[in-house]
Amino acid sequence: MTPNPRQAELLARVVADGSASIDSLAETLGVTVQTIRRDAQQMVNAGLLARFHGGVRLPSSTVENIAYRQRQTLHLQAKQRIARAVAKAIPNGCSLFLNIGTTIETIARALVLHRGLRVITNNLNVAAILSDAPSCEVIIAGGVVRPRDYGIIGEATVDFITQFKVDIGVIGISGIEADGTLRDFDYREVKVARAIIEHSRQVWLAADISKFNRSAMVELGHLNQIDCLFTDASPPSPFPALLAEANVRCELAPWG
Asked: What is the CATH number of the domain that holds 138?
């Protein structure tokens, strides 16, 4: 699903607090309890939220991500806004890492008109998208192809990445915890992302608002390793303080 503005606000409230009662959401958003129940059920069906008696909370799984086909449509407008903001900030004639994830694939689509890019990726979807770009050289990392999303992972991938030093590494993430820890679900994917961070002169993180206060099993790194965060709404507390402490520039993707 692509949440409507009211549902996006509902999700942002739950992300900020971890959970919320149906009654409090109805009061905060100025709609009926029945409307909130319908919205909440749609978002539960989409895997965005989980129900408990009288309220909703963030999904609790730390070991399994939402299915790839489902993630392709989740928060699509937010991802498109983030992608446009990232693409606008990327200059022509630079080198990039682009890793795995539906947000990163959306960013790749926003880059097809750039000139003189050299893109190194462990994502076959990104490679396919940018192969249509008339002025972009795409370098594909070797390794094991993950069938569910065509990500390339493994020790061979890490070794390949370490040959390069690029201008900007653009990465996605599954979750950012309240202590600033960056997390994901597949330790093999995480090892590649760590190599990307280490071999990029600047590291940009692209994450929509649903990623804040979301848990996952594997630690990738920390916000203090990021130079710039691109997101679609103001991060909830305590993230503004964490970003300021880590000297991370936060770019809010504009509407339109």
From this structure: 3.40.50.1360
> What tokens appear for 61 in the block?
């799984």
Domain count along the chain: 2
Pairwise CA distance, residues 130 & 126, whole Å: 6
Same domain, 205 and 236: yes
Q: Are residues 26 and 119 in the same domain?
A: no
Alpha carbon distance 12, 178 (integer Å)? 15
**pLDDT tens digits, residue range 176-186?**
999 999 999 89
Taking all residues of the chain, what is their mean pLDDT, rounded to a whole number?
A: 90
User: CA-to-CA distance for 24 and 241, rounded, in angstroms?
Assistant: 26
98/39 Cα distance (integer angstroms):
34
Q: What is the CA radius of gyration of the chain?
A: 18
Whole-model pTM above 0.85? no
Which residue type, as a one-letter code, is found at position 129?
I
Provide the token pair at 109.
């689509």
Per-residue pLDDT at 68 exceeds 60 = no
**pLDDT recorded at residue 63:** 45
What range does the domain containing 37 cover?
Answer: 5-57
